[in-house]
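Record 1 of the preview.
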Amino acid sequence: MLECVINISEGRRLDEIADIRRAIGHDVLDIHSDFHHHRSVFTLARPEAARTLARLSAERFDLRQHAGMHPRIGIVDVVPFVPLENATFEHAVAARNEFAEFAASELGIPSFIYGPERDLPEIRKRAFIDLKPDFGPQSPHPTAGAICVGARDVLVAYNVWLKNATIADGRRIAKEIRSKQVRTLGLQLGDEIQVSMNLIRPDEVGPQQVFDQIAERAEIARAELVGLAPARVLATIRKSRWVELDLSREKTIEWCLALRNRALQESDRNS
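->
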């Protein structure tokens, strides 16, 4: 199967987020909303649910009214398809292209694709400057902007909040721990400093490693898992550290998929 981890540029109107969740139903595995980033991360179990989320988000939210710390080019900002279980990377690429065609033809929103062709940071730097959309109109949608649609392997989105730090500290630490396995930003969110990360090869460098690297450089207030992590990442970490690292079995892809499947079975029995 394919997992889809959609990032939308809305993290404050939680009533609208809850309403969208109800409309999608059991295919929503997790939602993580952040006020300062003004962003919500939906983890979905099927590509079909991605279309529902995109349509509803484009109808309800307006990029012109958005102000948040996280980089974005659209209301439906990032739509990565991730192969799980028996799916292959080729399945993810096919789903990516089908979604980009849907966004162009039915929503009128341009899409930039990432994966084997280019990575997401490249789109962030070049979109509508010297890089044209791969699908759809060649200029941004007036209210929805554009979409980054990708095919990628599992990653872990992870934040660490610093104590008694400045934005200069956050940016310095982000730069020092940045690598091929870890993408980083140092951000000031209100009165707090955050090192925001994508652990793009979590089997090589996971939450424990980046947490400890940051702890060598600054005092840590707390850690935050954004969305879900694969169970194999937890298997490499002592259980005594899970709370400190904001990890648990209930925050794994596998646990949430099992809950979803049981809910579907119960619904079938009652129908």
